[in-house]
Amino acid sequence: MTHPPVLSIRDLTVGYRLGGTAQPAVHDVGFDLGRGQVLALVGESGSGKTTTGHAILGLLPDNGEVLAGRIEFHGQDLTTLGPKAWREIRGGSMALIPQDPTISLDPVRRVGHQVEDVLRLHSDLDDDERRERVHELFDMVGFTDVERLHRQYPHELSGGMRQRVLIAAAVAGNPDLIIADEPTSGLDATVQKQVLDLIDDLRTSSATSVVLITHDLGVAADRSDLIAVMRHGRIVEFGSTDEVIAAPQHAYTRHLLDSVPRKAISTRGVRQSASHDEPDVAIEVADLAKVFGDMPAVDGISFQVRRGQTFALVGESGSGKSTTARVITGVTPATSGRVDVLGTDITALSARAYRALRRDIQVVYQNPYSSFDPRFTVFDVVEEPLRSFQSTALLPGARRRRRQQSVDRVAAALESAALPADFANRHPRELSGGQRQRVAIARALVVEPEIVVLDEPTSALDVSVAAQILELLQRLQSERGLTYVFISHDLAVVSAISDHVAVMQKGRIVEQGPTDAVFADPREPYTVALLDAIAGRDLALGAS
User: Fold this and answer.
1) Is 65 exposed, middle or buried, given 0-12, 13-18 or 19+ CB atoms closer than 10 A?
2) What CA–CA distance (Å, rounded) separates 289 from 297?
């Protein structure tokens, strides 16, 4: 006997009112989701996938509305419900796992009490029974000391722990349908795997249906039964996951699949492998340690980065990779050990003496927007390093010449980052995430450094935008002979871009070597676990 669909959407059009007129953002969306199935809504930012999820949950903002179509949940049209009916459904038979656990939990309330709220609304349990049920839920999502967790505040938990608390809250009402909106965005690969495994286990044990909203095709390939690919508010391809991944019919789906980072041996790599002469060393780290208080963040690590190559530092949050980068760039002083940058031991330099070297080593951050002065134009942002390294004691004529040189240098830097010259007059808030990252790259390049430290430069970007940034970085390295220190928790990206890799765990390097060799034959269990946690591993690493 065939069960009716848990969720059935027909001709759904959703819009947002701007100046009194509703502008459609989602057009004619339709699909069925059966009991215990997982549907992945896949697309880039602005594709309409989150708007679709919010419409299903009745969580559109005040200026959002369903303009046409039906959303049937167990045969009931949700578009006709009032606030009281929604309170009974949402959090009970239908639940949300939101994207950002940092802003989804009340920072001033204990997490146990926040999960109890769901039970208070959707069950008849008394105080003691609710507390016992919360402990059962915490145990179900993988916590051990549930009594202690019940009393903790969100700031005392890691990102992965907070996400598991939100999953416990989502399943507290025994829902038939879960909308998971980018539930692993920003999490380390191993934590991402734990969260997705948990959702899988809950789906299997209780036949809960899941709408998984994601921009990550690897996650969709691993974790869904059905895929709906969205672009410009429309579903451009729909089908079983195996069929869509194996034989995509729409050009946009093929574009997304082509954007998944894959290992490709470049001609540069072939030339280096064929040569017996290793390039000179650009950075040498020897027995480096950094201690904060009594906690070692970096614990006696050593490695070399050769000129013109990409050296990747990988590991989970707290592994010490970003602290290592801050020491290399002179932001954080070392506790002990030696760090040679372009032949100079920077641990022996004063801040004033290191300043001269800073021109040759620049940084591109994970979230460039937070490092931009919001009052600056793009020109001001890119020119800032030039101003920092220039003397102000100039005669008027010299200042005019220097200003023209700055204009020329900024224009060249923007061009090298594949940005039009007229972007110089815009403000960062007017740009997309990928455009902002290109501005950050232009800012790093404007002083013509020899070394660029890239701290998670693609982790906040859609897969196709990330692919464009990686291609840009590889082109710039080929043209300019740049040396990269590439920090990432995304091993698929590291596999695609790096020559050598060092795997960090709890402040130590547990394994390092040529990337191909380490990834093909990892010796350490921790490296194996990181590789096993790559979403869509067959896509990313090119396995057959």
Assistant:
1) middle
2) 8
Residues paired with 229 in a beta bridge: 42, 237
Summarised one tens digit per residue, pLDDT across range 284-336 is 999 999 999 888 999 999 999 999 999 999 998 889 999 999 999 988 999 99
Using CB atoms within 10 Å of the CB of residue 146, give its burial: 0 to 12 exposed, 13 to 18 middle, 19+ buried: middle
Residue with tokens 């000179």: 280
Give the other-Cβ count within 10 Å of 113's Cβ: 15
User: pLDDT (tens digit, 9 = 90+) per residue, 445-498?
Assistant: 999 999 999 998 887 788 888 888 999 999 999 999 999 999 998 888 899 999
Percentage of the chain beyond pLDDT 90 is: 59
Residue among 467, 466, 409 nearest 443 (CA): 409
Q: For the range 150-155, what are the long-range contacts, defined as Cβ-Cβ under 8 Å and sequence gap of 24 or more?
A: 150/110, 150/111, 150/112, 151/110, 151/112, 152/110, 152/111, 152/112, 153/107, 153/108, 153/109, 153/110, 153/111, 154/101, 154/102, 154/105, 154/106, 154/107, 154/111, 155/107
Tokens of 106: 């009340």
Match 């690590």 to its residue by tokens.
301
- Strand (E) positions, 85-139? 94-97
Q: Is the pLDDT score of 267 beyond 50?
A: no
Tokens coding 462: 């859609």
The amino acid sitting at 510 is: V
Please check whether residue 484 is in contact with residue 310, taking contact to mean a CB–CB distance below 8 angstroms. yes
Question: What is the reported pTM?
Answer: 0.81
Q: How distant, in Å, are the alpha carbons of 70, 261, 529 from that of 499?
A: 52, 15, 21
Q: How far apart are CA 424 and CA 426, in angstroms?
A: 6
Identify the H or E element spanning 409.
helix 396-416
Cβ burial of 300 (10 Å; 0-12, 13-18, 19+) is middle
540 — pLDDT class (breaks 50, 70, 90): low
Q: Which of 465, 461, 383 is nearest to 425 (CA)?
A: 383
